[in-house]
């Protein structure tokens, strides 16, 4: 039961693109699947005593097992496809001319078309262009048409003992297998597209983080906080949701840099950013406003924001950053402002700034609203 569940989960992960199926396993499975198809055909021809065809198909089984074992392991996926392509182009016309068109062996040639386009998309050895698959499609089409013409004028060598029954079984079997191959490679193609979509989504998330965050502290940068501030203004206008901004500045930060160096200053900035992020509500936004200044967007009035800023101030004043053998402590001063109807964003920031500098002038390490 556990094995069954694990198999279903693995299959689901592959189909949804969460799990990448290695190319070696993918192409080995394709070769082994073709070997299995030829085993079924071999048994069928053997039961009918069609000597040439069952010997050929038996050799084809060995052929697919060999190339499925050797070529994918060496990364020769293009060569593996060429081998399969040539074998099918030989087998389908041969079986058709010996047993008759009605058996449906030419249907297998149709399955070569989506395979070529799938490989051109998923395998770099194809060059990822449409020229090669179109060439393979053209060759397959020519062989299909030529075999059809020859089958009209050449009587099949083998005949079947119970014509209608054997004809129906063979044609239905070949049709089902050919359609299975078409569906199988269509699913593979879908998986490949989904995998690339997920890769692009992941890369886009990384690019979004890079473009929206400060590389040192991991906080939002000014461009990204502007978006959140504009959204807060829109919510205030449409829903009356109050918000406040808190601007904090590390006290005497220049002296810290001059005394201990910029590397220690960077460590202090990272430490302060971590403390702030650990002491704000989930819906608040934190931005490195510039240098050692940090802006916090809090949804609520200054009465709501004040205790939050005070907790941050206390936590920072108690914290220490290691600088060699020494432990460095810093403090931070905060100025706050609540958004008012009719405010421009510059006005809101200006009010918070004035409160910040008021706190600096009154002795630093405090919160001013």
Features:
5-stranded mixed beta sheet, Alpha-Beta Plaits, two-stranded antiparallel sheet, alpha+beta
| Total domain units | 2
Helix content: 55-70%
The major beta sheet can be summarized as: 5 strands, mixed
The oligomeric state is: single chain
**Number of E-state strands:** 7
Q: What is the topology, as strand order, of the major beta sheet? A: 2-3-1-6-7
Q: Give me the Rg, rounded.
A: 36 Å
User: How does the helix and strand content classify structurally?
Assistant: alpha+beta
**Uncertain stretches of 5 or more adjacent residues:** none
Strand content: 5-15%
What is the 3D shape?
elongated
Explain what the structure shows.
This protein is an alpha+beta fold and about 375 residues long. The protein folds into 2 domains: about 20-210, no CATH class; about 220-369, Reverse transcriptase/Diguanylate cyclase domain (Alpha-Beta Plaits). The chain contains 12 helices and 7 strands. The chain has helices spanning about 1-15, 25-45, 50-70, 75-100, 105-120, 130-155, 165-210, 220-240, 255-260, 260-280, 300-320, 345-360, and strands at about 245-250, 285-290, 295-300, 320-325, 325-330, 330-340, 365-369. The strands form 2 sheets. A 5-stranded mixed beta sheet has the order 2-3-1-6-7, with helices on both faces. The longest helix is centred in the middle third of the chain and has 50 residues, at about 165-210. The radius of gyration is 36 Å and the shape is elongated. It starts with a helix and ends with a strand. The model has no long low-confidence stretch (mean pLDDT about 85).
């Amino acid at each position: 039961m556990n094995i069954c569940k694990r198999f279903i989960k693995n299959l689901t992960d592959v189909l949804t693109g969460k799990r990448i199926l290695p190319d070696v396993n993918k192409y080995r499975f394709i070769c082994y699947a073709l070997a299995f198809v030829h085993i079924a055909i071999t048994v069928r021809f053997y039961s009918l005593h069609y000597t040439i065809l069952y010997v050929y198909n038996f050799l084809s089984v060995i052929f697919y097992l060999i190339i499925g074992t050797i070529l994918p392991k060496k990364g020769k996926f293009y060569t593996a496809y060429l081998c399969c392509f040539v074998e099918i182009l030989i087998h389908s016309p041969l079986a058709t001319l010996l047993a008759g068109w009605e058996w449906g062996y030419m249907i297998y040639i149709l399955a070569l078309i989506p395979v070529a386009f799938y490989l051109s998309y998923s395998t770099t050895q194809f060059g990822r262009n449409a020229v090669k698959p179109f060439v393979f499609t053209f060759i397959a089409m020519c062989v299909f048409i030529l075999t059809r013409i020859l089958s009209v004028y050449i009587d099949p060598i083998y005949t079947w003992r119970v014509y209608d029954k054997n004809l129906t079984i063979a044609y239905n079997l070949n049709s089902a297998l050919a359609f299975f191959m078409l569906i199988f490679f269509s699913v593979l193609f879908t998986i490949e597209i989904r995998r690339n979509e997920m890769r692009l989504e992941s890369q886009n998330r990384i690019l979004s983080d890079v473009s929206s965050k400060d590389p040192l502290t991991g906080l939002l940068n000014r461009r990204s906080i502007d978006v959140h501030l504009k959204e807060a203004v829109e919510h205030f206008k449409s829903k009356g949701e109050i918000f406040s901004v808190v601007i904090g500045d590390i006290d005497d930060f220049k002296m810290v840099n001059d005394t201990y160096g910029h590397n220690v200053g960077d460590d202090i900035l990272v430490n302060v950013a971590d403390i702030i992020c650990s002491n704000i509500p989930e819906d608040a936004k934190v931005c490195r406003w510039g240098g050692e200044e940090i802006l916090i967007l809090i949804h609520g009035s200054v009465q709501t924001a004040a205790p939050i800023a005070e907790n941050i101030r206390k936590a920072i004043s108690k914290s220490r950053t290691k600088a060699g053998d020494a432990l460095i402590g810093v403090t931070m001063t905060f100025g706050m402002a609540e958004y008012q109807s009719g405010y421009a964003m510059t006005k809101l920031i200006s009010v918070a700034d004035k409160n910040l500098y008021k706190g600096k002038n009154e002795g630093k390490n405090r919160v001013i609203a």
